[in-house]
Model the fold of this input.
Amino acid sequence: MVVTALYVDPQGCYAGLPGVELWGLPDRDARAYGGPHPVVAHPPCARWCQLAGLVEARWGHRRGDDGGTFAAALAAVRRWGGVLEHPAYSAAWAVHGLLAPRAAGWWPAGDGGWTCHVEQVHYGHPARKATWLYAFGAPSLPSLCWGRSGGTALVSWCGNHVATGERRARLSPREAAATPPAFRDILIDIARGAKV
Done:
């Protein structure tokens, strides 16, 4: 079964995979995806993440003003089935009426979909990279590696959440945004199992 990966780097970890079609910005505008395959969506997060206020103050990009990328990704997942990935505590959840995950495991998102909190460090990312997933149309969802872990690096250049004197590598934006292949494979499997 073909799966479509939305908002992904054409040179990234989804490139060249059999049965995976890529739609990203600017080469194939993922907001225009019209099906028919289930999706794995990675909409841009800078306007929704916990650092969105800093982005707004520094660059003038208003919080939530993402050009419709999150709304389009959510609509595609609901229409074609699949999974959407965003940073944990993303403000997009509340704005789009999704219920946040409450603890380990999958939780109802309030619209027939499911949501969870997972850290990508368990799948090979050097940083914790706390992530929320939203799945729709998947009759069964995998048990993931739940729980908190430290990681060896930070995805942000901000020093918060680091113990005094602690030193961890700071990842480049490209390294921070990268999806570990093991995590990518789980997302693809969720999408392949979706039925809408």
User: Anything to note?
Assistant: Strands lie at 3-6, 20-23, 39-41, 82-87, 107-108, 114-119, 130-136, 153-154, 169-170. Residues 3 and 37 are 5 Å apart (CA to CA). Residues 3-192 form one domain.
